[in-house]
Write a structure and sequence with these properties.
By secondary structure, this protein is of the alpha/beta class. Among the domains are: about 1-75 and about 85-115, no CATH class; about 425-609. Helix content is about 10%, strand content about 25%. β40 and β41 form a beta hairpin. It starts with 6 loop residues before the first strand and ends with a strand.
């Protein structure tokens, strides 16, 4: 009898596949096998492995006694190699909560078992054996494309003899391995006497390392340049508190010509990105001109340099640069008076080498985010000679009260489209150089802004005539716009005010304004969002007539003191309802004023949309 079994789910302490009564044909069409809470120590014996000709996914969870998943011990007793050959087309392997798991595959010394199309391994316990026995089959992992390891207990992930078999590995993800100290162990490579046989070329494209508190080395030190990660495109290192560097110089030399994205966050001991080693006396073009398109360095309090020795970096392909809370590193080249410190002939522990040191015109960068010291220096105009002609999005986060010098900022970023400011600024929207300037950007985002009463008319009307999006989040302000400033926003399409605990009204009357100016028209405003404003009493407290000819999307929620929209008349010909929460609840009365009054008095007509 042939059973066309394609999916099997088994659970319970008595479950076992180690039964001679199982027919080889029984599992020949099996594509998915899920095992939960089984009591076996060895899950899949060799006689069952031989029948798994179609298995694509295996999931094993909550098996407290399991030590080995694939038991290959019986394979060594086979006399005829041909009859013992096995091919398993495994694509995905998930192992979770297996506290006694020692090996996925038990050790064997014959290369006649192949998991030929393996794509992914997702493990929450030890996956690769710590045994350094050379009897590991090269074919064991030769087709593995994705390796996902979580909450494992070993110290070294990939010993060299396993590394040699990872010919097809493209993605390596690690998270929460608290004891891990080394990812790729290359120590054994130094003992190889035949350079050709010891050369390793991996196709790894994506490396992600998260929450590894004891990680000391991604690549263990070695002195021979015969390991290549030439296909690596993305590296992400997050919350690795003991890691002092990401690469050694010898590894970086062969990698940075292809690496496109490097993200390093929350690594307290990180001092350099590239550390020196025995073969780092000279730097080639691939090192000084890395191919990176995105570089993000965040919360690295001890990071001083990209590379410890004297160097100058060029960034011919860099599009995104984010530097956040890395106050020890120098982003910009200092003036001549300090050049001896920056460009000393021999690097010392105190030497610093700026990230942007070669070209004063950075003509590839499109997004720039700076936080801390560098943001304060850039905003206050301390680097007037640098130009970023292609930067469209600029985000400055300050920790100290800073005066923004807009003339210098415009000179550095002549084609800016979106300006984001966060932190403390001294009169951020006023100053002697504001009125005469014409800013090109269309979007303005203000986050956690302090020391601001309202956006003055000179800033808005004279310097941002094409502003289409204004977003204010968590700003310590009491009013947002003066009436004169509001009238100048003739191109504004989106106005968003979120989580501003002190704001009492959005538009205030301009001091000295003629009382005959009673109309305020937002001719292009389409969307208005007011959310989390506990002290907001009204949109405007003066008797103006508001006209919103295109407004059709209004979201007003969590504004507990709001009693009316405005004191004067209001025209919203396209508005049919307003949204009052995140559950898509809409309400409407005859106009916006009545709708808000009824909503806050609990008398509502609900519109289902």
């Amino acid at each position: 009898m042939i059973v066309d079994l394609k999916s099997l789910v088994g659970h319970g302490s008595n479950l076992s596949l180690k039964d001679d009564r199982f027919s080889v044909n029984l599992f020949s069409n099996l594509k998915e096998l899920v095992v939960e809470r089984c009591g076996s120590m060895r899950l899949v014996p060799f006689q069952v492995i031989r029948s798994l000709n179609s298995l694509e996914e295996l999931q094993v969870t909550d098996c407290e006694k399991l030590e080995v998943v694939f038991d290959l011990e019986d394979l060594n007793d086979c006399e005829e190699g041909q009859s013992s050959s096995v091919v398993v087309p495994l694509k995905k392997l998930i192992l979770e909560n297996l506290p006694k798991l020692k090996n996925v595959w038990s050790n064997h010394h014959r290369g006649n078992v192949s998991f030929q199309t393996s794509r992914q391994i997702d493990s929450k316990n030890p996956l690769l054996s710590r045994n350094k026995d050379d009897r590991f089959s090269v074919n064991l992992f030769s087709n593995l494309k994705e390796l996902d390891v979580g909450r494992c207990g070993f110290v070294i992930l990939v010993p060299f003899q396993v590394l040699r078999s990872l010919h097809s590995l493209e993605v390596l993800l690690m998270n929460g391995c608290e004891e891990l100290e080394v990812v790729f162990n290359l120590e054994d490579l130094n003992d190889c006497k035949e350079p050709q046989s010891s050369s390793v070329v991996l196709l790894l494209k994506n490396l992600s390392l998260w929450n590894l508190p004891k990680l000391k080395n991604v690549w263990s030190n070695h002195h021979r340049e015969n390991v290549s990660f030439q296909s690596l495109r993305q590296i992400e290192v997050v919350n690795c508190g003991s890691l002092m560097s990401v690469f050694t110089a010898s590894i970086a030399r062969g990698m940075l010509h292809c690496l496109e994205q490097l993200v390093v966050r929350n690594c307290a001991d990180m001092e350099v990105i590239v550390a020196t080693d025995q073969v780092s006396e000279s730097l080639d073009a691939a090192f000084v001109r890395p191919r990176l398109t995105c570089l993000e360095l965040k919360h690295l309090p001890n990071l001083r340099n990209f590379y410890a020795q004297r160097h100058k970096l060029e960034w011919p392909h860099l599009h995104k640069l984010f530097i956040d809370d890395c106050d020890e590193i120098e982003l910009f080249e200092k003036d001549v008076s300090s050049s001896s410190e920056v460009h000393g002939k021999e690097g010392t522990i105190d030497s610093k080498y700026p990230l942007l040191s070669c070209n004063k015109v950075i003509d590839t960068l499109e997004e720039l985010k700076l936080c801390g010291k560098e943001a304060e220096m850039m905003g206050s105009g301390q680097f007037p000679t640098y130009r970023f002609p292609k930067v469209k999005d600029l985000f400055l986060i300050t920790k100290k009260a800073t005066i923004i010098l807009y003339r210098s900022l415009l000179n550095c970023f002549p084609n800016l489209e979106h300006l984001q400011l966060k932190g403390e600024f001294k009169d951020p929207f006023r100053g002697h150089d504001v009125a005469a300037l014409l800013f090109p950007f269309q979007k303005l985002t203000l986050r956690d802004i302090a020391y601001t009463i309202s956006l003055g008319p000179s800033f808005v009307s004279l310097t941002i005539p094409n502003l289409t999006h204004l977003q204010v989040l968590s700003a310590r302000v009491t009013t947002l716009l003066t009436s004169l400033a509001a009238r100048s926003l003739v191109h504004l399409t989106h106005l968003t005010v979120l989580q501003c605990n002190q704001i009492e009204e959005i538009i205030a009357k301009q001091e000295g304004e003629d009382d005959e100016d009673q109309d305020i028209i937002f001719s292009k405003l389409e969307r208005l969002q007011l959310y989390g404003l506990p002290k907001l009493k009204r949109f405007c407290g003066h008797n103006y007539t508001f006209n919103f000819p295109l407004l059709d999307d209004v979201n007003i929620a969590y504004c507990g003191q709001l009693s009316t929209f405005c004191l004067g008349a209001i025209r919203t010909p396209r508005l049919q309802s307003i949204k009052v929460d995140f559950k898509n609840k809409h309400i409407w009365k005859s106009d916006l004023n009545e709708t808000i009054q009824y909503h806050f008095t609990g008398q509502q007509d609900v519109v289902n949309i």
